[in-house]
Amino acid sequence: MNKLFKWIALNLPQILLICGFFVISIGSYFISLPIGLIVSGVSMIILSILMIKSD
After folding, report:
1. Would you say 8 and 15 are in contact if contact means Cβ atoms under 8 Å apart?
2. How far apart are CA 11 and CA 9, in angstroms?
3. CA-CA distance, 12 to 4, in Å (whole number)?
4. What is the value of pTM for the model shown?
């Protein structure tokens, strides 16, 4: 058990970095998903308006 605590103490910065990276990447994915949907929806609307006007 003591060895485990020593290992955790030595590797804590790396563990925290990895966990933080996962949290940030998942968070940014969930934040970017609605933004991406909104942007693609707006661009589709603009494209359809342009196509209707060109006719």
Report:
1. yes
2. 6
3. 11
4. 0.48
